[in-house]
Write a structure and sequence with these properties.
Blueprint (H helix, E strand, L loop, with lengths): L7 E2 L9 H5 L10 H17 L6 E7 L2 H12 L5 E6 L2 H13 L2 E6 L8 H10 L5 E5 L1 E2 L4 E2 L2 H10 L3 E5 L18 E5 L10 E7 H5 L12 H11 L8 H17 L1 H22 L15 E5 L8 H10 L2 E2 L1 E2 L7 E5 L6 H18 L6
Parallel strand pairs: 1-12, 3-4, 3-5, 5-8, 8-9
Antiparallel strand pairs: 2-10, 6-7, 9-10, 11-14, 13-14
The structure holds pyridoxal-5'-phosphate.
Length: 371
């Protein structure tokens, strides 16, 4: 059940959450309290389970938005003399490169067209050409466009070359399967407020235990030292520094609903149904998605803006907002686009409603003929 007053967020984080998840935040928790620390412990083992990591991996939560966890994982797991290959196809890949630059870690930028999936053969060739590369950092679903990358193939070529893989699975984890037993990685990073449908405020990394153990002293930062956070949690069962208590209990409640829904398979199917209903409805209005269906992840869809003189994103955004839906601008530099998320506590029926709101707005704007 959803409260009726909030607009629906068609944005892939923050996103629309259920009433049950929101109600979980109506209590105050002490960070020293064993009941709260038990919730943290259970949460971490459930997250580990979703990733298929048993004793081989650990789950480390971290305060902050997803980027904090990405920066923490890169700063902790890549040694100061490490070198990271980054296939660069969009905004979140570019953010990884920017983080590495700020941290003073060497990086290799491997340009990839933004409307195409990363080519594992290009990664293989780049690794063959440069023996100094120690890590590959990839984005599973590039949320800037919605491209889905072939993660299993990328993991295979990276492991075959003896390099470590760091995965930004922020916008896919929980809806698109990843299994640490068959897909080798050193770290996978995600957050509370994406496909797990919690509220934003906490990231986490699933890290190969040996890589975590070997990373002591690498990090440039105290607050973002994932090794220190892990060691402290192991020793005390408590978070190092004040935990985002309400975010943690909301995520625990969101996870209970996740398992009730049927876990990763069911969540991925609902999002795929949302995505195809959305694309179909938008095509009916004459609006085309940027990506070919083979590379489209069921997470967020980028649409070409209508080629009409009356088009204006701000007016469009406000018209759709007045009708109860919040959309995203595009993140592409060369072509004008806008984005609609398929994730959150939403169903195909909600996608019909958003398409109707978009149609009405475009008719009001004069972009589409009045009925
Ligand atoms: C949401 C997201 C992040 C984290 O962004 P924040 O603004 O820090 O939450 C990182 N990578 C990807 C692919 C994302 O979708």
């Amino acid at each position: 059940m959803r409260p009726i007053l909030d607009p629906l967020l068609l944005t892939p984080g923050p996103l629309t959450t259920t009433l049950r998840t929101k109600q979980a935040m109506l209590h105050d928790w002490g960070s020293w309290d064993s009941a709260f620390n038990r919730i943290t412990g259970e949460l971490c083992s459930q997250l580990l389970g979703i990733a298929g990591g048993g004793d081989s991996h650990v789950c480390v939560p971290l305060q902050g938005s997803g980027t904090f966890a990405v920066e923490a994982a890169l700063g902790t797991l890549v040694p100061r003399d490490g070198k990271v290959l980054v296939p660069n196809q969009g905004a979140y890949c570019a953010r990884i490169l920017r983080i590495l630059g700020v941290l003073g870690r060497a990086a290799v930028d491997l340009p990839t067209p933004e409307d195409q999936a990363i080519d594992p053969a290009a990664i293989d060739a780049a690794l063959a050409a440069d023996a100094a590369i120690t890590h590959v950092a990839v984005v599973h679903c590039e949320t800037g466009t919605g491209v889905l990358n072939p993660l299993a193939e990328i993991a295979r070529v990276t492991a075959a070359r003896g390099r470590a893989l760091i995965i930004d699975a922020m916008s896919s984890f929980g809806a698109l399967p990843v299994d640490a037993r068959t897909l080798p990685f050193d770290a996978l990073i995600a957050a509370s407020g994406k496909c797990l449908e919690g509220v934003p405020g906490m990231g986490f990394a699933i890290v190969r235990r040996q890589a975590m153990q070997a990373s002591a002293g690498n990090c440039h930062s105290l607050a973002l030292d994932l090794h220190d956070q892990w060691a402290y949690l192991e020793r005390t069962t408590q978070w190092r520094f004040t935990p985002p208590t309400h975010v943690v209990v909301a995520l625990a409640e969101a996870l209970a609903q996740y398992f009730e829904e049927g876990g990763c398979g069911a969540r991925g199917e609902r999002y795929a149904a949302n995505c195809s209903r959305l694309v179909q409805g938008m095509r009916g209005l004459g609006l085309r998605p940027l990506l070919a269906p083979q590379v489209q992840a069921p997470i967020i869809v980028t649409f070409h803006a209508p080629a009409h003189p009356a088009w204006n994103f701000q007016a469009f955004y406000e018209g759709v907002r007045e009708r109860g839906f919040i959309l995203y601008p595009g993140k592409l530099t060369r072509i004008e686009t806008f984005r609609i998320g398929c994730i959150g506590a939403l169903t195909p029926h909600d996608m019909d409603q958003v398409v109707a709101a978009i149609g009405a707005t475009l008719r009001d704007m004069g972009v589409l003929p009045r009925a």
